[in-house]
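call fold(seq) -> tokens
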Amino acid sequence: MLRRILFVQLLLSALVLFVSARQWARVTYFEADFPTVSLSLSGRQLDPLQAGLAVAILTAALGIMVTRKITRRLIGLFVFIAGLAIAGNAFGFADPENITSTIVDQLNTAVGRPTNENFSVVYSRWWLVSMTAGLVIAACGFLVLAAKRVETPLTSRYERTPETVDSKISDWHAIDQGIDPTE
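ret:
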């Protein structure tokens, strides 16, 4: 089950990275006696938080694979909170008024001076994909957080088993200790 959760987490965080690089807004500025300026703004240009959290979730998936017990639960809590942050941040794009100041700043930079209100914006719906992915990532983090003790092959492979006093030593160890194993 943990492998499936990690696969979904990795897939969706890569999806958030991909979606944040797509065009989320197309801005056209027009003014008399001035050429028309068109800008394509990606999700990263409007708000880079989602891409940064997606990278952190990718690395957290690796952390979940190699840790156990309380550390794994702490990483699961981080993934849960980061997934909710991605979803909440993407939900902020549902209302265009929330990102108008960022768009105006980008437009002022492109024009080279303060602009007036003569611009139009066409929004895409990539924020819906990002919000949905963030909610599913949060669910993955919650499942890791709430999971019972699950050992991955990577964490259990390198653990030492306590040797009992009654256990017979192997022939190789007997030769190392100067004992003849044929007797």
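The longest helix spans residues 69-91.
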